[in-house]
Amino acid sequence: MNLIKNRKVGFIGAGNMGQAIMKALVDTQTVAPGNLYATNRSPGKLKKVEEQFGVKPLSTNEDLVDTCDIIVLAVKPQDLAGVLEPIASSFHDGHLVISLAAGFSLKSLQRLLPSVKGLARAMPNTPATIQKAVVGYCLADNAETYQASVEEFLQPLGLVVPTEEGETFEALTVSCGSGTGFVLELMQYWQEWIEEHGFDPATARKMVVQTFLGAAALADKSESTSLVELQDRVVSKKGVTAAGLQSMRELELERGLRYSFEKAAIRDQEIERGTARQ
Ligand SMILES: NC(=O)c1ccc[n+]([C@@H]2O[C@H](COP(=O)([O-])OP(=O)(O)OC[C@H]3O[C@@H](n4cnc5c(N)ncnc54)[C@H](OP(=O)(O)O)[C@@H]3O)[C@@H](O)[C@H]2O)c1
Hints:
By secondary structure, the protein is α/β, with parallel strands linked by helices. The chain has eleven helices and eight strands.
């Protein structure tokens, strides 16, 4: 599409997620070399991104907004209002602003940046660091014309999912953002059980990882087959897998997981209300 290849992209914040996105943009040549800029509170990370990805360091956030067309807000949510308030007047309606801040609503962003029409919120999960993220995004009202640019920007991170702010954005945050943590929790149970049955930790870890990767890759390769059908293929009546699955269902594993998802969603709402009050 090349909508952003020759645009100047600036990151306010060169921490973990900022760096993951810079790396993805550079590796996939989505943005032309020399068109990436960043600021950061402490200087060490700026030096690192300059050396590793050729990102040009700028000394103030105001300079960055003056220099760039696309501004990525990659500071912690609790720092965001303090970062934007003093530089709000530097933004104009030609800017596209993409906020990564969890729990910071588009309404709060609009209040802070009233002159910006191109406002988007994106929620990548940590596999973004290896370009295997699920990244959801939503656009502010009347920002539809920026949709293609936002998608092109996020594409290098992994699977891009458009959502609406509210229930679907929250569901994505919980199931994919927190979901990465939930899956890693399950993997730990797997590993512990394997170790208890005679395998050394390194081998047990590899076995778990490959089992999860294998199941996911199988599902990925068989897109037209439902997950239930795929599962049926590994379950023979009265067999080993069937016995295990029956216990999982008797123990209501699904109910436990749903309960955890709902708890996480409630926490997400609390955080969103808290940042909106700032
Ligand atoms: N990490 C994830 O998996 C993930 C997933 C989804 C969304 N997010 C969102 O992404 C955002 C960044 O998260 P992160 O994990 O990358 O945090 P992080 O590693 O702490 O990065 C934030 C960076 O912002 C810098 N910073 C703070 N104040 C600044 C200022 N006034 N001007 C310029 N830079 C400033 C910090 O500088 P210092 O060097 O001084 O600390 C730090 O390097 C957050 O809003 C978070 O909600 C993260």
